[in-house]
Amino acid sequence: MSATKTDVVIVGSGPSGAAAAKRLTDAGYEAVMLERKAMPRHKPCSGIISPRGHRFLIENFGPLPGETMHEPRYCRGVTFHFPRGGALPMDFDGGPTPHMHRKYCDAWAVKRSGAVLHAATEFLSLEDDGRRVRVRASRNGEPLTYDARYVIGADGPRLAVVKSLYPEYAKSIPWFVVGQKFHAIKECPLDEEYFHFWFDPGLGHYTWSHARDGRQIVGVGFRSGEVFDTKHARVVEHLERRHGVRLGPGEDTEIVTANFGPSLINRYVFGRGNTLITGQAAGFFNMIAEGMSCALHSGAIAGEAAVQAFRYGSDVQTVYREMIQSEVRRTSDQWNPFKVLFGRPHEADFRGALSRLPPGRRRLVWGDIWNFVKLYSSLNWGRQMFCQGALRQFTGRYSPSRWL
Amino acid sequence: MNPSAAEPAADPMAAESLPELPRQQTNPSRWNGAGWAAFATRLRSSGIEISEKRPALAVYATDSGGLACGMPHGVALARSTEQISEIMKAAQKYRVPVTVKGGGLTTEGETVAYGGLLLDMRGMSEVLSVNKAALTVRTQAGIYWHSLAEALRREGLDYLSAPLNMTSSVGGTLQVGGIDVNSPRLGCSADQAVSLKVVTPTGEIKECSETENPELFERVLLGYGQFGIVTEAVMRVRPFTPITMRYFYYSSIVEAMEDLKMLVRGDAADYCGILTIMDKAVNLLVAFDSDGREENFLRTWRKKLRGHGEAGFALRMAVHYALRPWKFQEALYLLSRKNAMQPEFFPYHHMEKGKIVDRTVVFSNAVWKFWGGKKMVIPDLATSEEKFVEAIVRGNEVCRKYFKHYTLYCVAIKLRDGLPRYELSCIPPDARGYAYGCEFEPMLGDREYSRDYLQSFKNEIYDIGADMKTSYYRFGGGMKGYIRRAFGNELVDRHLALKREADPAMVLNPDVIF
Lengths: 404, 514
Known about the structure:
The structure holds 2 protein chains of 2 kinds. Chain A contains 13 helices and 17 strands. Chain A is an alpha/beta fold. In chain A, strands 1, 2, 7, 8, 9, 10, 16 and 17 form an 8-stranded mixed sheet that branches. Helices cover 35% and strands 29% of the residues of chain A. The longest helix of chain A has 21 residues. Chain B has 3 domains: 132 residues, 2-Layer Sandwich (Uridine Diphospho-n-acetylenolpyruvylglucosamine Reductase, domain 2); 117 residues, 2-Layer Sandwich (Uridine Diphospho-n-acetylenolpyruvylglucosamine Reductase, domain 3); 238 residues, 3-Layer(aba) Sandwich (Vanillyl-alcohol Oxidase, Chain A, domain 3), CATH 3.40.462. In chain B, the strands form 4 sheets. In chain B, strands 4, 5, 6, 7, 8 and 9 form a 6-stranded antiparallel sheet that branches. Chain B has a 6-stranded antiparallel sheet with strand order 10-12-11-16-17-15. In chain B, a hairpin with a 5-residue loop joins β7 and β8. In chain B, α1 packs antiparallel against α3 and α14 packs antiparallel against α15. At the A-B interface, α1, α2, β3, α7 and α8 of A face α2 and α15 of B.
């Protein structure tokens, strides 16, 4: 069977894949994009995007069409809820951002990127002979082969491309279960223009709620091994008791697993040889687990690195790893305790909002944050975050020696 | 944008309600190619050669900036005004975008074609006639400035002011400005144009000058290629003279800028400008066309300058770094930089009796080759005299934040107040008499930077401009999101209406301004 020959194969049709494809097709290279499902495909996601991500979408793909957004169409910012410190709302820098409808938003971005989309095509494995990469895939059970100069793995937490390069990697990192249910709203005093997040170790590692298309989403993330329904019911009960939120029964349950963590401790995975890993697959995750903006930017950088390698014959890994520094700094800075305490790494003014609280409440908030962070102590990230953060302060960058 | 929004103004997702960030598609999507085949067939039937082969197209994938990439559907080499007229007539009919490229020295993708036809003007690069009595030259517009200078030299003549990199084309330069170290005396290159032969976006061939078709003349000059393709230009020239150069060194940007303003106001030198190595070594250069001017400068102005000669400055720097031994790397960098650059500024093989006999040697690639690398970003601010120092000081802070090594290049531009051509251009609306410009040039070298990093740097520089209500030189292409912030909706909309009238299919140089 003859292989489909192309310049670059991109695995995954999310934001990072679309951004990489945009850079490649702009420069005149062909990018074939493999998507496991039929398009447009559903994707469980809060749909929150940071101002940087919003700007990237518009600058690269044009004005957002109506169908790429849910109702309410925008999000003004984030509200943090602390067990003792109360609510702390923060607006995004530069105005509200859209509430993305991932099913249509991703399809729109892919279409605008100029990629050649091969939908319902699952990536299986790859072989890199140093000059070109042979990719094996399947469509409706039928085997397919692609022959490309470079492969970009942009398949998010599935890590299919990562696994084909590093079979042990997925077992070596902690995994989180993240689930959400949709509820009819009887009464909801939570401001629907904000994304709500709870710093409450009693609820979960990652607890959130926001409105979408007339219903309220209640979600919770936790370490693998616990039962979603129990955790979720506890959050719903908490919302009712603490905030007076009265909801109908949960429906349309969505559960995913997430490779949350590499950006906190600077343990990214960027690929090997002629294969680049990007987006969430590489480990990019912003604060409040907004992944779209760093997926877009890191994907674009993967595309830029490939273009650079094509044009100048440079080694694609070297170029990519040098270029990606800017995105690593952007993302890891958001988790870096030194930057959080003394800098302004986020796209909402956390310290500013905090400074407007009376001193007593401020102390309570810091105490609540400390209690919440302790929930993660079993992961042994604390020392790594501290050391990486300190090194960043001294050297101005995150050490590439920790990347895979 | 959103058909369901009954009141767009109340919708925070409407484009016009997002004032803080430049939110506009600045990396354009590739044109869909509808009509290309018919367009190409028609041109070929008229004997116009178009190349659609990938290796030929790949040559045009990017510009000097190396950041914006795009591929045309085909490339045509400019041969004659009539040929270009044919191309534009067909482009209007089949709605095919036409991107015009001369030297391609843009940094924001203004000369990158995102589909459609790329018209390479370098096919029209002959000097047509020289009028020694009237001191004018008529030249085809695709000629590089250094070729023009060479042709003029044979006649004992010289150009007035040209851009710093002389591998730019005359036609391209006239449509964006063209700033030189003699712009404080002579204005920008665009102001040297006497008359132009232009192909309008609809394919008409028109001569224009300040007396003939003046509206077209004023729109095309500094028009960023929106209102026509310049195919021939008549420009003022002058008798050739060798020049003498003098350098004064400062360790404070503010002092150097203030001295520059003083020299400009007093018409103290024939050429003056500032080039720096970061904000550590600031070089104010002055040059003279005649001994008389130089003597007058030494008599009247030298003692008012706060800058030092080379020996004096070297001594001061030696003391400065001796007291700050931990900054030895910075000192070494300054020294290496000086050693690398000095031969370019004193090109002994082009000097006679202390005078530079060929200024194109200094003011061409010699300076540019020290900037950028494979990629280049040159954000800039153009201000009135009053805002100049503050803008530079703020811009300098941004440079320090992003890059270890960078250069600032500052010049003044003499204005002929009130000319319509200055609207929506690098000339700030509030400048009277003189405008001042500063380019912020990071030394990218061979390091690889992501576009996002470089873009963030540019945004921070341009944010200063938006905040201070100044203008820019490079506001097209990737930075077009700033145009409305800088100039306001009323002016931009007025120009958009003019553009729509002149170019109904909106095909000439799309994605540059509008």
